[in-house]
Design goal:
The protein is α+β, with helices and mostly antiparallel strands and 121 residues long. It has two helices and four strands. Helices cover 34% and strands 21% of the residues. A four-stranded antiparallel β-sheet has the order 1-2-4-3, with helices on one face. Strand 3 and strand 4 form a beta hairpin. The N and C termini lie close together (9 Å).
Length: 121
Amino acid sequence: MDVDQGRYPYIALHDVPEDKIEIVPGASADLTSVTFSIKEEDHTLGNALRWCIMQNPQVDFCGYSIPHPSEAKTHVRIQTTDSTNAIDSMNKGLDDLKAACQLIQSKLHLRMKEGDFARTA
C-alpha cells in the first residue's frame, strides 16, 4: 500500500439516521434492562461495543446477538445496577468506543509519519 504524503483513507459517519438505534419493546420500566436494535451493523461493532460497555462497573450484563443472518441489524442487551440506566450506559459505551478508535487512529498516523515500520512488496 502506498502512503500518499500523510493522507490516509478513513471512514467517517456523516449522516447517521435518527432511527439507527431503537429500543426493542420489553424494556424494564426503570430502563435498567434494555435491548437496543442497531441497524446495518454486525459482529464488528457488536463485539467492540459489548466490550466497551462491560468496562463500566455499573453494568451487570451486556451481550449482543445477530437476530438472523438475513437481517442487517444487531441487538445489544444491557442490564445495569440501580444507580444508572441502560441508555446512559449505551451512550457511555459509544463514547468510549469512539475515543478508543480515535486513539488508535492517531497512533497509526504517528507511526506512518515516522516511517518506522516494515514494508512488504
